[in-house]
UniProtKB/TrEMBL annotation, chains A, B:
It comes from the Bacteria. The gene is cas2. InterPro entries: CRISPR_associated_Cas2, Virulence_VapD/CRISPR_Cas2. This is CRISPR-associated endoribonuclease Cas2. Keywords: Antiviral defense, Endonuclease, Hydrolase, Magnesium, Metal-binding, Nuclease.
Length: 87, 87
């Protein structure tokens, strides 16, 4: 599946959230990651993040599609993610 | 079409970018908006943003799908967008 993940977490938890996201996805922009994951990988990512965040304060939103073909990506201005992150 | 928009723009241009995004989309999280737009509305949004940002410094990424049914959204922790923003 294709995954877009956006996070809004407290500064003190950001390093752990970033480390987990980087393990599974490519960095796109400030608080955004994207990538292709298996269902098992997606579940593992969500489980790890669930134990990392404070659910009363932090927020992580994921958008998933069965295939990257279902989503078109477009950039205005500079592309922040590396070449490996282009769809 | 269904649109997810993430922005990473300089602080001084944020108010203008936010105002434009709010006109067309619902706020989801920190630097993320989403919503359903016609092709004409999407083009108008992109044109306005293109004249607002500094293309050498700012970055706006959009993900579009033909229909919201193609994208599943899931939240860990708190939901920051209002009730009107739930998919």
């Amino acid at each position: 599946m294709f995954v877009i993940l956006v996070y809004d977490t407290a500064v003190e938890r950001n390093p752990k959230v970033l480390k987990t996201c980087r393990k599974y996805l490519h960095w796109t922009q400030r608080s955004v990651f994207q990538g292709e994951l298996s269902t098992a990988q997606y579940r593992a990512l969500m489980t790890t993040l669930n134990t990392t965040i404070d659910p009363e304060y932090d927020s992580i939103v994921t958008y998933t599609a069965r295939s990257p073909d279902m989503i078109e990506s477009s950039t205005l201005g500079i592309t922040l993610g590396g070449p490996g992150d282009i769809l």
